[in-house]
Design a protein that fits this description.
About 70% of the residues lie in helices and about 0% in strands. The chain is built from six helices and no strands. α3 packs antiparallel against α4. The protein is globular, with a radius of gyration of 16 Å. About 10% of the residues have low confidence.
């Protein structure tokens, strides 16, 4: 039915949006992104522009999406670490997939690529190197989170 209750969950939003019919072709194109600022350069400006367009340019809604991401991502990072340490391929795959999808919405490309590598590793069932990837993901999350916090405060 497309209803989303509060508090808003990013995964639920993505699910609703993915089930929505495509929008008719726009008569105008998205505004080209502004030049990258150093604190947000870690985020793909095109992805942010597309996200902004998909939410109708509503800065309050964007702030809410960012807040949900900043709340959920550390939980997913914890799940990644615990699953890697326990050798739980299924839990590792699920957490990597969730963090990858959520991060892709904001254009955190490095984080997305690392999560994709970890997800594929977990799918294979061979978890050698998974802890190293988790550490790389944890490291890549920090600048992405800082950029989103800077974006949030600029709204």
């Amino acid at each position: 039915n497309g209803y989303l209750g509060k508090p808003l969950q990013l995964e639920a939003l993505v699910a609703v949006l993915s089930e929505s019919p495509p929008l008719p072709p726009a008569t105008e194109t998205a505004v080209p992104p502004e030049p990258e600022e150093p604190e947000t350069a870690v985020l793909d400006q095109r992805a942010l522009a597309n996200l902004n367009l998909s939410i109708g340019g509503d800065p309050h809604f964007l702030n809410e999406l960012i807040q949900v991401y900043l709340h959920d991502a550390p939980i997913l990072l914890g799940r990644l670490r615990r699953a890697a340490e326990a050798g739980d391929a299924d839990a590792l795959q699920l957490a990597a997939h969730s963090l990858k999808s959520n991060s892709a919405e904001f254009g955190a490309t490095k984080l997305v690529n690392l999560c994709m590598s970890l997800e594929n590793l977990a799918k294979s069932g061979h978890l050698q190197g998974s802890l190293d990837l988790v550490e790389q993901i944890e490291t890549a999350y920090q600048p992405a989170a800082a950029a989103l916090k800077a974006l949030k405060t600029n709204q």
